[in-house]
């Protein structure tokens, strides 16, 4: 759920044109299409004074916004409100996580997505129990769990049995 919130905030930032896409040319107000002008109307008087990079981001954001369905727009508004309510420390934490995510390989991202999906598929009580246990672990135990999960992906069936046993031992489950 926490990852989903971070992802949603990221999408809200992207939708509103706060990406780092920079246009090579300066955009004048008259270069914008009518829909972009309507969306960006509050900025018309100061448009030419804005840095070219910001104008390009705003134009990109307006184009994205125009392509969204009403439901997507509602979600984006909610996400923006949530983002704006965050403290600078929270925003920085999210940005650092996003940078770490972007630095991952596609395989690592897919593995994390599969793990998240697996976790979400668990019954609520089991998820709560695992969260409590995770929070109570020390850094060494957490790192060992990460290693076990990574090793499990490529393990033989026999090795998977051993890895599951070790995992259960660490999290305090018996079977």
Protein architecture, described:
With 175 residues, the chain is mainly alpha-helical. The protein folds into two domains: 2-101, no CATH class; 124-171, no CATH class. The protein contains nine helices and no strands. The protein has helices spanning 2-15, 34-39, 52-67, 70-85, 88-103, 106-121, 124-136, 139-154, 157-171. Helix 1 (2-15) packs across helix 4 and helix 8 (139-154) runs antiparallel to helix 9 (157-171). The chain is elongated, with a radius of gyration of 22 Å. The model is unreliable at 18-25 (pLDDT under 50).
How far apart the termini lie comes to 28 Å
Task: Give the number of helices.
Answer: 9
Radius of gyration using CA atoms only = 22 Å
Oligomer: single chain
Task: Bin the strand percentage.
Answer: under 5%
Global geometry: elongated
Structural class: mainly alpha
Helix content: over 70%
């Amino acid at each position: 759920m926490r990852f989903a919130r971070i992802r949603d905030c990221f999408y809200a930032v992207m939708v509103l044109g706060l990406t780092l896409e920079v246009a090579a040319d300066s955009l004048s107000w008259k270069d914008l299409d009518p829909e972009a002008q309507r969306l960006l109307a509050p900025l018309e008087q100061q448009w030419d004074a804005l840095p070219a990079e910001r104008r390009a981001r705003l134009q990109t954001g307006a184009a994205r916004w125009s392509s969204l369905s009403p439901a997507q727009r509602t979600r984006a508004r909610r996400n923006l409100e949530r983002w704006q309510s965050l403290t600078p420390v929270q925003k920085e934490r999210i940005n650092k996580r996003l940078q770490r995510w972007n630095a991952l390989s596609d395989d690592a991202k897919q593995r994390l997505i599969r793990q998240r999906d697996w976790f979400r598929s668990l019954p609520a009580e089991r998820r709560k129990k695992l969260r409590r246990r995770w929070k109570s672990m020390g850094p060494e135990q957490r790192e060992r769990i990460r290693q076990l999960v990574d090793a499990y992906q490529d393990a033989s069936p026999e090795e998977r049995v051993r890895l599951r046993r070790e995992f259960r031992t660490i999290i305090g489950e018996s079977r």
